[in-house]
Amino acid sequence: MNIWIISIQNIKSKPLYTFLSVFILSISIALLLGIQQLKRSFENQIENNLGKIDVVVGAKGSPLQLVLASVLHLDNPTGNISYNEALKISKNPLIKFAVPISYGDNYKGFRIVGTTPEYIALYDGELEKGHPVENAMEVILGNSVARKLNLKIGDTLLSSHGLVENSIEEHDDLLIVVGILKPTQKVIDRLIVTNLESVWYVHDHGGEVNYERHDDNKRHGEKEITSLLINFKSPRGLLPFLRRINKRTNMQASLPKYELHKLYENTSIGFKTISLIAYLILVISCITIFISLYKMVKERAFDLAILRTYGASNFQLMKMVFYEGLIVAFSSFLLGFLLLKIGLGFMFHFMEYNDQQNMLQESLFQDVLQIGALILMMVIVSVSLAIYPIIKMNISTILSNEK
């Protein structure tokens, strides 16, 4: 007697119950996996992309917007600040290093960031091909940029004004690719990095280009940057520095870790709500599985009694019910995983989160395993309750009543 075949035939005989069980359970699995994936993606953006950045200094405005724009490159900048003033700030003895960044252009949706060589070191970036930026109008590509746009060393590109892809406001000056970074799984993978002179030159439309080091104040006049990324020698200098910048200057200083964790705390309410809904759906689906299996056992009591008279043991009948629950759970898990991929794909497409701004991290095997174990445990509980009539089954009574 093949228990698997009998279990499959039983499932086929009640398609409505099977469909409801699989569909409801797959919805809860998709929600649980999706929430875990979104949470990990958010946490990854915080942990990986902050790097060694303790403070961001930029124009007055929203501190969170300043952080999102300057660290994660997911928002528009709050404005520009004087490069000379930024240089003065960077000479503070409490500061270990300060990295200026300037941006406002893009190439096919990827941001072009003017900065110093230290910027790549913030993200432990290493060249895979080519050489560092040495002159104005040279750029280094993040690995995702090179891969998705199929660019290579020596290629040239025309930047467009603004942070959204457009062909209307293209600049006339060609940028040349001189290097490609190794993948880092950080924000720099989707950036085009150049020096500050390149950004200034493009926007000055032919103004004098300075090839000297950036610590020469007199050369730059009234040049501006978007923000300054700062690392401190000691945390003790953070608060006095913040108060001085925010109260005594026309700039603002923001703490990236604080702002992003505050954002995470606010969004985590939504994560918790959806998780609660997913667990409720999971409980409902397990109740549906229990009802389906229990109904099958009660309605097929005569068939089960016949199987007993032909030598089947109670354990074999229990296995048959367990296999049905296992098939439903496995099918639901596969469907739930498929729904997750389709749902997230549609969501990011609808929100215009294309490859240029893709923050999504793949689900960890640990998350999948934990949710799979939870589903299996719930199914085992449902099956254990459903097989109770088999344990109490009186063969002679059932056969005599049926006759």
UniProtKB/TrEMBL annotation:
It is a multi-pass membrane protein. It holds the Pfam family FtsX. InterPro entries: ABC3_permease_C, MacB_PCD, Macrolide_Exporter_MacB. One of its GO terms (cellular component) is plasma membrane. Residues 276-394 form the ABC3 transporter permease C-terminal domain. The keyword Repeat does not apply. GO terms for molecular function: transmembrane transporter activity. Keywords: Cell membrane, Membrane, Transmembrane, Transmembrane helix. The chain crosses the membrane at residues 16-35, 276-294, 326-348, 368-391. Residues 18-199 form the MacB-like periplasmic core domain. It is found in: Cell membrane. The keyword Magnesium does not apply. Belongs to the ABC-4 integral membrane protein family. This is Permease. It comes from Polaribacter irgensii 23-P.
